[in-house]
Amino acid sequence: MGGIMRNHSNTIFITGGGSGIGRGLAEAFHKLGNRVVIGGRREAVLRDTCTANPGMSYVVLDVASPDSVRTTAQTVAAKFPELNCVVNNAGVQRAHNFSAAGGLDEAALREEVETNLLGLARVCAAFLPHLRSQPEATLINISSGLAFVPLARVPVYCATKAAVHSFSVSLRHQLKRTSVRVVELIPPYVDTDLDKGRRRPGGPTPMPLPQFISAAMEGLSGDADEIPVGDAKFLYASAGPGEAFTKSFSRMNP
Prior knowledge:
- By secondary structure, this protein is an alpha/beta fold.
- It is built from 8 helices and 7 strands.
- A 7-stranded parallel beta sheet has the order 3-2-1-4-5-6-7, with helices on both faces.
- The longest helix has 27 residues, at 106-132.
- Strand 4, helix 4 (106-132) and strand 5 (137-142) form a beta-alpha-beta unit.
- It is globular, with a radius of gyration of 18 Å.
- It has one domain: NAD(P)-binding Rossmann-like Domain (Rossmann fold), CATH 3.40.50.720.
């Protein structure tokens, strides 16, 4: 079973690495002496991030496309055979009001599910054969505090993040006798462009991105499999796995 991830000398691939949390993590890992490769749909953003961080590399990737994920995994593994960490960060968030007439935006619904859940599962499946070939490897899935206590105005986002949590629990169990460690990073509301244009006056104050990255990196240097950060700790504690969950899971998954 994979051990604690060292904080330097890794080769790390990060989806959605050109902006927001993905870029913040990429730059933090890069500064610690890791080789970092970022992926995403917007090549201009990826290029800007790499220009600002000499030595960082990028590949254009659309996690909603099975072919793109498959090709990217083959390309990255061939070019960087020492790859030992994959961070599933790519995600989108859309507001939906199912109580309104004609409230379903089919395109937005499909985009969220394809990116946040199916894309994450595809990346895991595509990269796991390579990660399992390494003496030690880490797969980091980024969920959300909203996986545990949902925010009603973004119901599909919350549902996909709850699914990411459940998927990560099962994946960890399936890989427990391999060299791959599965970690779930659980952010709070962070100041990024994820909810650009939809913030409400007087609403909750987001955690500054630099503060989040600092706390996340501290958490990732430890041995916890599930890492809630900031206010996500309260959401996680209020609905997260406890002793009863552990016993039930063990009974169902011997």
